[in-house]
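Task: sequence design from structure.
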């Protein structure tokens, strides 16, 4: 069985945030640390998705109008396919 290494990370919270977290943990009957771990994991996933989106958008902007932007043989094949589809639905 694989052992997962864990690390502790001390995060000072303002009293109101701490109280809200404790209340939510009680409501869900889960440890507050579990809720925080889930929130951090979710936030990191969102950051990774945003970074990927930005990278794709940057590539698309840099490629606009270049040979990478338009593959003429692929465009011709798609137009041919659309034309055939219209003739034979």
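Answer:
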């Amino acid at each position: 069985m694989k052992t997962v290494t864990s690390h502790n990370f001390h995060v000072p919270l303002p009293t109101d945030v701490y109280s809200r977290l404790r209340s939510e943990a009680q409501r869900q009957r889960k440890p507050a640390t579990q809720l925080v771990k889930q929130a951090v994991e979710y936030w990191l996933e969102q950051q990774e998705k945003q970074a990927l989106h930005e990278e794709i958008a940057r590539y698309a902007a840099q490629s606009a109008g270049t040979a990478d932007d338009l593959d003429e043989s692929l465009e011709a094949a798609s137009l041919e396919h659309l034309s055939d589809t219209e003739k034979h639905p």
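The first helix runs from residue 15 to 28.
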